[in-house]
Design a protein that fits this description.
The protein is α/β, with parallel strands linked by helices. Strands 5-4-3-2-1-8-7-6 form an eight-stranded parallel β-sheet. The protein contains nine helices and eight strands. α8 links the parallel β7 and β8. α8 runs parallel beside α9. The two termini are about 20 Å apart. The chain has a single domain, classed as Phosphoenolpyruvate-binding domains (TIM Barrel, Alpha-Beta Barrel).
C-alpha cells in the first residue's frame, strides 16, 4: 500500500498531553508517531488522549500513526482494539522480529476493522525492524507478509540495549559495524519487499544531523524519524529533493 509520495518526516510525539500532540501537528511533519509510553493505567489514559486528539482533528495532515507494543503482548491487543476506531493511518510495531509478526498484527487489525465497519486493509503497518538481534535475522521475511506494510524503519537505541554495545558511533561519528549492518540490511530488505525504508531517530539538528540525513537520502531511504520539531524542516528539506 505504498503511497505516491511517501512521508519524509516522522515525528515521535509522547502522548503525555493532548496539547503536545496538537503542537506536534503544527510542526510541518508529514507523519506523527504517537508514543503511548509505559504500561498500566497511564497507558490506558494515553490511549484516551489519542482518541480525543483524533476526534478533534479537522484535517488529514499530518498522517497519524500510533506506536504499539510488541505482538503477542496484552498491551498490543488492547492498543489495537481500543485505537483502530480512532482511524489512525497506521500502527508502528515495536520489537518486530519479522514477517510473521506483521501477519499476526494484520489479522488483529482485520478483526478490529470488521468490528467497526471500516474497509479491510485501511490501516497500515510500519515495523521497527532492527530492535533486537533476532529482528535483524528476520528482515528478509517481510517480503510478501502483508499488503498493509508501508515501510520498514530501523532503530539503533533499542538494538544497542539488546547487544550491550558501548557506542553506536565511532570517534569519527560513523556507525560502528553492528549498526551499519542493521541500517543496510533494513534498507535492502525494504527494497526487496517493494517498500520504503525509514532512517533511525537520532539527536541534534546541527551539521552531523544534516550529514546523516544526506547520507540516508543518498543511499535510498525515503524518510527519517524525528525526535523534535526542530529536526522536521531539515528532514523535509533533504528528503524533499
Amino acid at each position: 500500500m505504498t503511497p505516491a509520495r511517501f512521508h519524509r518526516s516522522w515525528l515521535i510525539t509522547p502522548c503525555a498531553s493532548e496539547t503536545a500532540m496538537v503542537r506536534a501537528g503544527t510542526s510541518g511533519a508529514d507523519a506523527l508517531i504517537l508514543d503511548l509510553g509505559i504500561d498500566g493505567a497511564e497507558r490506558a489514559a494515553a490511549r484516551q488522549r489519542v482518541i480525543d486528539f483524533m476526534a478533534s482533528r479537522d484535517d488529514t495532515a499530518p498522517a497519524v500513526f500510533v506506536m504499539v507494543a510488541a505482538i503477542g503482548t496484552p498491551e498490543c491487543e488492547d492498543d489495537i482494539r481500543t485505537l483502530t476506531a480512532a482511524r489512525p493511518a497506521g500502527f508502528v510495531l515495536q520489537q518486530a522480529t519479522g514477517g510473521a509478526d506483521v501477519t499476526r498484527l494484520a489479522a488483529l487489525l482485520g478483526a478490529a476493522e470488521a468490528d467497526i465497519g471500516i474497509d479491510d486493509g485501511a490501516t497500515a503497518i510500519v515495523p521497527l525492524a532492527t530492535q533486537t538481534p533476532a529482528a535483524i535475522l528476520g528482515l528478509a521475511t517481510y517480503v510478501g507478509s502483508s499488503s498493509r506494510l508501508l515501510g520498514l524503519a530501523w532503530d539503533a537505541l533499542s538494538l544497542k540495549a539488546s547487544l550491550g554495545s558501548r557506542a553506536i558511533e565511532d570517534e569519527s561519528g560513523a556507525l560502528t559495524t553492528p549498526y551499519s549492518l542493521a541500517r543496510n540490511q533494513c534498507l535492502i530488505s525494504a527494497m526487496a519487499a517493494g517498500l520504503h525504508a525509514i532512517d533511525r531517530a537520532e539527536p541534534g539538528e546541527g551539521r552531523a544531523f544534516i550529514n546523516s540525513c544526506n547520507e540516508a537520502w543518498r543511499d535510498g531511504f525515503a524518510g527519517k524519524i524525528a525526535t523534535s520539531p526542530a529536526q522536521v524542516p531539515v528532514i523535509n528539506g533533504v528528503f524533499g529533493v
